């Protein structure tokens, strides 16, 4: 057959840049609009990672400007540690080049693809190079380069390079131009809003055409930079072990201790004996017949899980709750952080939160916010293990209706923090269906579901009680009036009874015979911190409880008592005076307040 | 800042093999079970493509065998054209190497990644090389090689190479071993079933452990091998145009005619004048200031769409309908092929089909079968543009309930055939959200929706008529009896009336005075092919319509008439005899049959 020879002529290598130029959708460049978001996201990922490494509070400028009919210029500038000039070409104009790929720790960038992909997309759509400026030190000048990727070889090409003055002492600025049709304003703001929530220490200044605004930082603490750890024995695969042993000149015991996380001398010896291998044998001499039992031993010996605290940087419950509350003014919000776990040797932690009510849309599917390594995931929701896990929870058993996602005024946030997030593609839109990760998400959501159920049933119970109380209270004054009529006495004051039934804080002031009496009952189920204001001509100099504060103006005395009342507790103060004036409480919710001023 | 220098030390290249070893989920190796399916799929894609190129009827062996507790051996063997020995290492043990990446035509493999990814996965999980045997010609021996990928460099390593005798005159056999837990039997059969439907010319022999079975070919016609075409001017991006012009020594007009599909001299001149460029200018001299207007001109000048028929190979309506009917015995089935279309310069065609009823599950979401370039897509349904398009159709307007997907006994098949299918990732599970493709899918589904609606409303109307008829028929005998009673006559036979009302085929036999009469009325709306059986002591020698067949046994004559009756038509035969015996029809559905034997 001559055909095989003919076919052979067409067989050749494909450069990785050629590959991704043809398959740009895999990098998140499906459409021109999306291209803008992906570019900014990749640049910001790099900026935040670099600032974290330098322990600098990130101050990031994002600018999107239409410079001709269909060409947009995107600039992202940070105050990070900068990049040395020798590395600038490869960092920005070579796919599969970076510092974080080979490290075992949580970072936003991990593939060595992101920003170079944006450079590739820019030159593909406009033919224009990307302009990068970076400065590493106040003592040196900044370097500006104009870069393209040579597609056939995936190598950087420097079109120009000069030293320039720059106002920033250190930092990096990248400027790209590409074709698009709109500035993707809404999606960009959405992306920055969610990025701010999970990076409260970062400040973003945004310029979209002639508009500018700022996402201020709400915390001035740089999160600790995750520390790179060694791989864990449970996550190693045979091929990798084979490569590691071939490259090492250590004896087995030392190799195990040196190369792996959580393996001490004792564990190493245990592994050797379980594999029936001499602990002093040179690992480079081991063949498959020894490596197979060695790997088995490594993965069956009891070894502690990798310490997640070092290499991972979860957002924390507190910051999640703060961020979500600020955004949505929720009636209910709860966050959970699962303990650290492992898949294929990679540490990960799942954090999740559920919010209810507030400003959330009352109908339709829940809002699902997905994050991986502190980066919001904005596309491919349907492809994501997070979505899958949320849909597989039986929400009905938590009192929530469901059609795929739960429905109603519900917000679900899930954050997967991992030393290697298993994304379904280079565009980093969706987490792959790794059973260990799905399981942790499910457990977090189930815990939160139980909390939500309690909230909902308490709310329902409260609502029921409230309805009943309201019904009773509506007839009490009528009964009182009727009774008064029958016994021919003045109608009694029923506010106190109503207050008790309605579970309110009731404030009552009365005066008689030159004595003034102020009484507060806390009929609610919670402790209340109350500021009681009493403004009248009386100075209350002989008050049984002296006021915390008194001031006088034109013969009117403002007296303030700071009172803390547990549920069911009461407060009373009396003083000599003629009463009148006005009375008020602060610190009690309006709908829980009953003020009965019998002294007007 | 020293930090930038420190960070620079960690910055380095990542080999594409290293990248995919760490991100194996992107290649479809999320889990061991899936690994088996992905491997077989990649090998079969190659086999089918190669057989198509050689115009050979594919005869493919797939074998999956557990060879130890957790190690499985997968073999795929084909009768394709084979691979020359010099190319075997790179084809199987180098990622991003292949013959189809740079060609503009429909192929199953297009990335140069698939089978090498499987080799990478095998060596990663078992440390074992992949064994490839290939023969290109009966005159030469076969070559067997044992291959691994050097991960750090993405280069093939040949561990052994020998010439061997082989029973096949030409073909390729690949054998891989990897860790898994189960043989993924069900998913494998599903994959092969759907692959057979869209490749009816292929035969698959399957061996899973000790079980073996065959998917026979149902067509012995090899589909024509799609012909590679030149890129279309509408789909070129500036970066690519820049590269093409830089590498060419042609004048502009000749460059346009030579390099692009559907550009003749006249069109080329039109483009030149619209771009205000000299048609004789050497293209290698053109800078961005000329290339930008040139591209604009290329994309605004009216140029016919690329001819889909050459470079694409749709399944065709006929084969889709055949395949689906065979599998599901549907009540309704319709397929549509949209005209060829273009996205980003890549030709594509959408084919779709809808089936209803039959053996489909009556409740729950519709079954959705997705195909791309004749390959079934089995994973990541939620991430796929096909799913998205199906969900965005308003199925309620076609009389079908919907909750995301349509619900009920519905089957939807969509095939996207393209010179470059925009997959969301290297695992080729899902089509990316390209607006042009989604639009074509939507249009195909809307056309089919209208057909389905007509079927459903006709069916509903029939059902309504049936219900009404049933109601009337249930009282007719009572009325007849009552009338008989009143007029003191025997109760008349009402079956004929009922048959007419109910739209049945009514067969009636009676005899009187030594004459037998058999009468058939086709009251249905369709033509009926009926075999009428009449078994009695009469030989019907003088029948007015001679029987098609007569036989005698122990004095009983079986007479058969083959009768075709259009809707509304009747048949009658009489003969001399005494009647009795039995009578029956075949060829008419049981629920349409009324037999009235008045001659028992």
TrEMBL record, chains A, B:
<comment type="function">
    <text>Relaxes both positive and negative superturns and exhibits a strong decatenase activity.</text>
</comment>
<keyword id="KW-0413">Isomerase</keyword>
<keyword id="KW-0799">Topoisomerase</keyword>
<keyword id="KW-0547">Nucleotide-binding</keyword>
<dbReference type="InterPro" id="IPR015320">
    <property type="entry name" value="TopoVI_B_transducer"/>
</dbReference>
<keyword id="KW-0067">ATP-binding</keyword>
<feature type="binding site">
    <location>
        <begin position="109"/>
        <end position="116"/>
    </location>
    <ligand>
        <name>ATP</name>
    </ligand>
</feature>
<feature type="domain" description="Histidine kinase/HSP90-like ATPase">
    <location>
        <begin position="31"/>
        <end position="182"/>
    </location>
</feature>
<dbReference type="GO" id="GO:0006260">
    <property type="term" value="P:DNA replication"/>
</dbReference>
<dbReference type="GO" id="GO:0003918">
    <property type="term" value="F:DNA topoisomerase type II (double strand cut, ATP-hydrolyzing) activity"/>
</dbReference>
<dbReference type="Pfam" id="PF09239">
    <property type="entry name" value="Topo-VIb_trans"/>
</dbReference>
<protein>
    <recommendedName>
        <fullName>Type 2 DNA topoisomerase 6 subunit B</fullName>
        <ecNumber>5.6.2.2</ecNumber>
    </recommendedName>
</protein>
<dbReference type="InterPro" id="IPR040494">
    <property type="entry name" value="Top6b_C"/>
</dbReference>
<dbReference type="InterPro" id="IPR014721">
    <property type="entry name" value="Ribsml_uS5_D2-typ_fold_subgr"/>
</dbReference>
<dbReference type="InterPro" id="IPR003594">
    <property type="entry name" value="HATPase_dom"/>
</dbReference>
<dbReference type="InterPro" id="IPR036890">
    <property type="entry name" value="HATPase_C_sf"/>
</dbReference>
<dbReference type="InterPro" id="IPR010979">
    <property type="entry name" value="Ribosomal_uS13-like_H2TH"/>
</dbReference>
<dbReference type="GO" id="GO:0006265">
    <property type="term" value="P:DNA topological change"/>
</dbReference>
<dbReference type="Pfam" id="PF18000">
    <property type="entry name" value="Top6b_C"/>
</dbReference>
<comment type="subunit">
    <text>Homodimer. Heterotetramer of two Top6A and two Top6B chains.</text>
</comment>
<dbReference type="InterPro" id="IPR020568">
    <property type="entry name" value="Ribosomal_Su5_D2-typ_SF"/>
</dbReference>
<comment type="similarity">
    <text>Belongs to the TOP6B family.</text>
</comment>
<feature type="binding site">
    <location>
        <position position="428"/>
    </location>
    <ligand>
        <name>ATP</name>
    </ligand>
</feature>
<feature type="binding site">
    <location>
        <position position="46"/>
    </location>
    <ligand>
        <name>ATP</name>
    </ligand>
</feature>
<dbReference type="InterPro" id="IPR005734">
    <property type="entry name" value="TopoVI_B"/>
</dbReference>
<dbReference type="GO" id="GO:0003677">
    <property type="term" value="F:DNA binding"/>
</dbReference>
<dbReference type="Pfam" id="PF02518">
    <property type="entry name" value="HATPase_c"/>
</dbReference>
<dbReference type="GO" id="GO:0005524">
    <property type="term" value="F:ATP binding"/>
</dbReference>
<keyword id="KW-0238">DNA-binding</keyword>
<feature type="binding site">
    <location>
        <begin position="99"/>
        <end position="100"/>
    </location>
    <ligand>
        <name>ATP</name>
    </ligand>
</feature>
<feature type="binding site">
    <location>
        <position position="78"/>
    </location>
    <ligand>
        <name>ATP</name>
    </ligand>
</feature>
């Amino acid at each position: 057959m001559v055909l095989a020879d003919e076919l052979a002529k067409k067989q050749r290598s494909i450069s990785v840049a050629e590959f991704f130029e043809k398959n740009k959708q895999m990098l998140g460049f499906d459409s021109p609009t999306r291209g803008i978001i992906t570019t900014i996201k990749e640049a910001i990922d790099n900026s935040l990672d670099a600032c974290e490494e330098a322990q600098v509070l990130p101050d990031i400028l994002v600018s999107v400007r239409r410079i001709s009919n269909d060409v947009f210029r995107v600039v992202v500038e940070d105050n990070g540690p900068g990049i040395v000039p020798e590395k600038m070409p490869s960092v920005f104009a070579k796919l599969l080049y970076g510092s974080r790929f080979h490290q075992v720790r949580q970072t936003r960038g991990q593939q060595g693809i992101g920003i170079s992909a944006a450079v590739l997309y820019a030159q593909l759509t406009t033919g224009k190079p990307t302009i990068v400026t970076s400065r590493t030190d106040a003592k040196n000048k900044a370097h500006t380069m104009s870069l393209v990727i040579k597609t056939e070889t995936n190598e950087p090409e420097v079109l120009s390079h000069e030293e320039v003055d720059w106002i920033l002492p250190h930092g990096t600025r990248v400027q790209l131009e590409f074709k698009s049709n709109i500035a993707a304003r809404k999606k960009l703001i959405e992306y920055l809003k969610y990025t701010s929530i999970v990076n409260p220490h970062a400040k973003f200044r945004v310029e979209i055409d002639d508009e500018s605004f700022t996402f201020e930082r709400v915390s001035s603490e740089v999160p600790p930079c995750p520390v790179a750890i060694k791989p864990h024995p449970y996550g190693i695969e045979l091929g990798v072990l084979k490569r590691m042993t071939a490259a090492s000149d250590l004896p087995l015991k030392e190799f195990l201790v040196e190369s792996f996380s959580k393996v001490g001398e004792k564990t190493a010896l245990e592994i050797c004996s379980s594999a029936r291998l001499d602990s002093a044998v040179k690992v480079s001499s081991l063949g498959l017949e020894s490596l197979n039992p060695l790997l088995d031993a490594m993965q069956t010996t009891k070894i502690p899980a990798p310490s997640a605290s070092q290499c991972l940087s979860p957002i924390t419950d507190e910051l999640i709750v703060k961020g979500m509350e600020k955004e949505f003014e929720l009636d209910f919000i709860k966050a959970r952080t699962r303990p650290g776990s492992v898949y294929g040797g990679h540490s990960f932690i799942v954090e999740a939160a559920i919010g209810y009510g507030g400003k959330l849309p009352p109908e339709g599917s829940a809002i699902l916010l997905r994050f991986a390594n502190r980066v919001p995931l904005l596309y491919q929701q349907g492809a994501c293990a997070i979505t899958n896990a949320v849909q597989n929870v039986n929400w009905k058993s938590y009192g929530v209706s469901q059609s795929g996602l739960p429905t109603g005024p519900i917000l679900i946030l899930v954050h997967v923090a991992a030393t290697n997030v298993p994304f379904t593609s280079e565009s980093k839109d969706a987490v792959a269906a790794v059973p260990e990760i799905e399981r942790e998400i499910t457990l977090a959501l189930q815990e939160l579901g139980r909390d939500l159920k309690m909230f909902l049933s308490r709310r329902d119970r409260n609502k029921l009680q409230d309805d009943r109380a309201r019904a009773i209270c509506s007839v009490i004054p009528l009964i009182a009036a009727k009774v008064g009529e029958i016994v021919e006495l003045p109608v009694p004051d029923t506010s106190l009874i109503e207050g008790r039934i309605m579970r309110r804080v009731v404030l009552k002031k009365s005066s008689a015979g030159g004595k003034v009496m102020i009484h507060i009952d806390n009929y609610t189920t919670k402790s209340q911190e109350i500021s009681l204001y009493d403004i009248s001509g009386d100075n209350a100099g002989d008050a049984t409880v002296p006021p915390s504060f008194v001031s006088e103006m034109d013969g009117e005395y403002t007296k303030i008592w700071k009172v803390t009342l547990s549920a069911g507790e009461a407060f009373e103060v009396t003083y000599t005076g003629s009463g009148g004036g006005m009375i008020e409480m602060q610190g009690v919710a309006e709908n829980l307040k009953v003020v009965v001023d019998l002294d007007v």
